[in-house]
Design a protein that fits this description.
Elements lengths: L10 E4 L3 E6 L6 E6 L1 H11 L4 E8 L4 H9 L3 E8 L6 E8 L2 E3 L3 H7 L43 E4 L4 H12 L5 E5 L10 H8 L4 E5 H7 L7 H9 L5 E5 L5 E5 L4 E5 L12 H16 L2 H16 L14 H9 L4 E2 L1
Parallel strand pairs: 1-4, 1-8, 2-6, 4-5, 8-9, 9-10, 10-11
Antiparallel strand pairs: 2-3, 6-7, 11-12, 12-13, 13-14
């Protein structure tokens, strides 16, 4: 799509586009397929009827056909920039059980499962750094001028996990436009006590901050192990809503303005491939929240979408959901929400 498309965007999504190589616990390997967090988040948003502009950096060899798929699924791709700098976009994930991912030593797992090692993975090294640089950009980092002018008219935005530099600049860039609802999911490489003094500035402009129990507790190491106490502490830095995704699939939601807490359970489902489930959750959460600014309803839509995502493989799987299914599941899950 291009800036001449007259269909208005109602959100901007920034994140990463990658080539995924996935070995699920069961089922068919997904090798050299469209992945990264951005398409999953955008699909979660599109599932409920949203149209988003997508912002990411890709290398010169990133398949145009994949960008065409994103456009066909309802995303505006004019914010996806090709760069000439070396950018290794490969991502390897293996599941040792239905929900536990590992991203290291791909050769070992291919040999163990008797699967020929893909030539496209030769030379691959675990891509995710243990720590983010506070001053240097990665090849995939977003820059101030990466957001197209057209996107600045959107009322909502979400920033997927990228790196410290991207998360430092994107909220302030997006806030110069018409964005009044801004969500962001934490990136593991800065959820560490060594970044404690930087977190306030990183999340101060957010409406919604999403993280996981493991990342939240690592950031607060030595300060707190209580999830609700951590959520209150993060909200005190600025966000109106904190969402902590738990290992059991539930979402713990804290509203600073209402001073209320809820536990939204996971929707029970058979897991095929959990890749991208939290990103799909985030996309659905943002869309639902913009409808009536109800964080519980938003988390319910997020949980339903995460479950749908896990039932198949690839970011576009959820867009083939049967009509009425997500609404029926929503009605079934709603009575199970617990106010704390």
């Amino acid at each position: 799509m291009s800036e001449t498309d007259l269909t208005p965007l109602n959100a901007v999504f920034g994140g990463r586009l990658q080539r995924d190589f996935i070995l699920p616990f069961e089922g068919k390997p997904q090798l050299n397929v469209l992945g990264g967090n951005l398409p999953y988040a955008a699909a979660g948003y599109a599932l409920w009827g949203g149209k988003a502009g997508l912002v990411a950096r890709v290398n010169s060899e990133f398949p145009q056909a994949w960008l065409d798929q994103l456009a066909a699924a309802g995303g505006d791709t004019s914010g996806i920039k090709r760069v000439n700098a070396p950018l290794d976009d490969r991502r390897f994930i293996v599941y040792l059980d239905p929900l536990t991912p590992r991203m290291d030593n791909p050769l070992t797992y291919f040999v163990e499962r008797g699967i020929p090692f893909p030539r496209d993975l030769i030379g691959y090294e675990t891509a995710e750094p243990r720590f983010c640089s506070k001053v240097e950009y990665e090849p995939y980092s977003l820059h101030v001028n990466d957001v197209p002018r057209l996107y600045m008219d959107a009322p909502a935005a979400h920033v997927c996990p990228i790196d410290f530099m991207s998360h430092k600049i994107m909220p302030s860039v997006l806030k110069t436009g018409l964005v009044d609802t801004l969500s962001m999911r934490s990136t593991a490489c800065y959820m560490d006590p060594t970044y404690w003094e930087d977190i306030r500035g990183l999340i101060a402009d957010l409406t919604i901050f999403m993280t996981t129990e493991a990342e939240a507790k690592r950031l607060f190491q030595g300060r707190s192990v209580d999830v609700w106490e951590i959520a209150v502490g993060l909200a005190d830095y600025g966000p109106q809503i904190i969402v902590v995704n738990m290992p059991d699939g539930s979402a713990w939601v804290y509203s600073r303005l209402q001073s209320k807490r809820w536990i939204v359970p996971a929707y029970p489902t058979r897991v095929v491939d959990p890749t991208g489930m939290l990103d799909a959750f985030d996309g659905a959460f943002l869309f639902a929240y913009r409808q009536d600014f109800d964080p519980v309803e938003a988390a319910l839509c997020g949980s339903i979408t995460a479950a749908l995502c896990m039932e198949g493989s690839g970011p576009f799987y959820i867009l083939d959901t049967l009509p009425g299914l997500k609404e029926a599941r929503l009605e079934a899950l709603r009575p199970r929400v617990r106010a704390i």
